[in-house]
Amino acid sequence: MTDYKSLSNDALLAHVDVAGRTLPPELLRVLMARRIDLREKILDNFAASLHDDWEDDDDPRWYRAVHYGFLLIAYRERKALPIFAAIYGGDESHDSLIEWFEDAPANFGPAALPVFQTIVAAAPNTWDFGAAMSISVLETLALRFPEVRQEVVTFLRSRLPALNEDGKLLIDDDAEPDEHWGSIINALTELRDRASMPQALALFDAELIDPMEADRESYLKDLDGAPITEKRQPFDIFTFYTQIARPDAAK
Asked: Distances from the Cα of 25 to the Cαs of 10, 32, 40, 66, 212, in angstroms?
């Protein structure tokens, strides 16, 4: 067994680079214990890993971006947020990373709010995985951090088309619908935002919401459900790696 405590910082990170799909708990303990010394180097490595292009699909270094990202989330290192912005707001080449991180950047807390608002605001009308997951990050922030809940709701509501005095959608007949409206409505439903109901119902009635994303009946039923909150459970990197090390793990 490798004595990770005896290794230099550079040697530790070399082990991270080639660890493959998971990190052993012995290595994790040392990485967490040395977080103050390691965070700047890990930030650099995380940013560099976005440009990785290994020839072999089985090269274990494909996973190093995953490890560095989750370490920085465990460190609560807010300097990592611009790197996550490049992932979620970038092109589809980062989709596999987003599949790993999902809404995990919400663990940075309210500091993540403007980052993911910017991604959603800049998203094209065509469906984009990074933008859709950014909506999920915002939803999770609102559920876990009551102090930003209203700001998230107000922002998401603003991404839906407005209504005129007659309750009709203020969009051109030939305008392309925003394919993220369904994700936004789902998030607002989870947040029990009844103020956006007229906009949501108008979108359903105009058949501008993909039924695979959301449907009118389920929307009304869920909106009347009990309010949802989530406790601010800190991200536990040891539990995370224990779970993915299982043969039947989803990832």
From this structure: 18, 10, 22, 16, 40
Say how many C-beta atoms besides its own lie within 10 A of residue 44's C-beta. 12
Cβ pair 145, 232 in contact under 8 A: yes
Q: Report d(CA 228, CA 160) in Å as an integer.
A: 22
Give the start-to-end residue ranges of the domains of the chain: 1-105+234-251
Contact 17, 64 (CB under 8 A): yes
Name the strand (E) or helix (H) holding 37: helix 35-49
Nearest alpha carbon to residue 194 among 219, 159, 163: 219
Helix, coil or strand: residue 31: helix
Residues whose CB is less than 8 angstroms from the CB of residue 14 and which lie 6 or more positions away in sequence, other chains included: none
133-179 residue pLDDT tens? 999 999 999 999 999 999 999 999 999 999 999 888 998 777 788 99
pLDDT one-digit tens code per residue, 70-120: 999 999 999 999 999 999 999 999 999 999 999 999 999 999 999 999 999
What are the CA-CA distances from residue 182 to residues 48, 79, 95, 179, 246 (Å)? 34, 31, 20, 7, 34
* H runs (alpha helix) in 76-180: 81-88, 95-101, 113-122, 129-144, 146-158
For residue 232, the 8-state DSSP code is -
